[in-house]
Amino acid sequence: MKISRQWMMLVFLLVVGVAQTTWAQVTLPQVNLGFKTTDNPTEVVSAIKLVLIMTVLSLAPAILIMMTSFTRIIIVFSFLRQAMGVAQMPPNQLLVGLSLFLTFFIMGPQFTEMNTNGIQPYLTGKISQEEALTQTLAPLRKFMFTQTRDQDLSLFVKLARIDKPKTRADVPTMVLIPSFILSELKTAFQIGFIIFLPFLVIDIVASSVLMAMGMMMLPPIVISLPFKIMLFVLVDGWGLLIGSMVKSFG
After folding, report:
1. Where do the H-state alpha helices sit in the chain?
2. Could you report the per-residue pLDDT of 172-207, keeping only the tens digit for each?
3. By the 8 A CB rule, do 202 and 228 touch?
């Protein structure tokens, strides 16, 4: 017992010594966060721009979700999982990741146009900040107008209590965004209803067969779930669903 304690103390001292030596050799950078007084207006403007950029970056996830195809895709995938009757398969992380990459695939032309016409010219100093904002929002506005119903747009124009716009360019972006979200919700629920129909037929058939056989204590989902999965696999459900959703944004 004494020998083992001595070995333990020796190992402990060696570990402490190595840690102290390693820590002494590590150099950490100094980071200073704070504000200082200045008489130069340029520095004040730069600080304000930095704060605004950080604010926009904090809102980037909401912008990505609400102003792109992400909303429709994730809702349709949720409807599919509910219609098939599988609780956590595919898992939420997989559905969100798939929806995110499909969004990048669908919005690729818009993102490229935003970078070419708005971001890069502003970074090189060719256009002003106001022009950069207008050029960057233009592809997103065009995409949202394509997917927005006229009745949803008129609804929010009335709610905003503004004059009826004569052209699409006169529609404020803060009116266009909720109109687009409402239209996406309607479209996603319509697609979800169509997805439910074939799986509902299988549930009805399974329930009727169990009742005819007198097996009322057996849940119909136990019988219908394998047939739903088999039907979805045989018709290449993932390919049909994803292909149809991508084409719906064309």
Report:
1. 2-25, 41-58, 60-66, 70-84, 92-106, 108-114, 120-123, 129-147, 150-160, 173-212, 220-234, 237-248
2. 888 888 888 899 999 889 988 888 888 888 878 877
3. yes
- Residues 10, 4: Cα–Cα separation, whole Å: 10
- Tell me the residue type at 206: A
How far is it, in rounded angstroms, from Cα 39 to Cα 61? Answer: 36
- Could you tell me which residues come within 8 angstroms of residue 173 by beta carbon, excluding any fewer than 6 positions away? 137, 141
Percentage of residues in the chain having pLDDT higher than 90: 0
Two tokens at 54? 């950080």
pLDDT in tens, 107-123: 888 888 888 887 777 77
Tokens of 195: 């997805």
Rounded Cα distance, 207 and 44, in Å = 71
Q: Is 140 exposed, middle or buried (0-12, 13-18, 19+ CB in 10 A)?
A: buried
Task: Give Cα 104 to chain centroid, integer Å.
Answer: 10
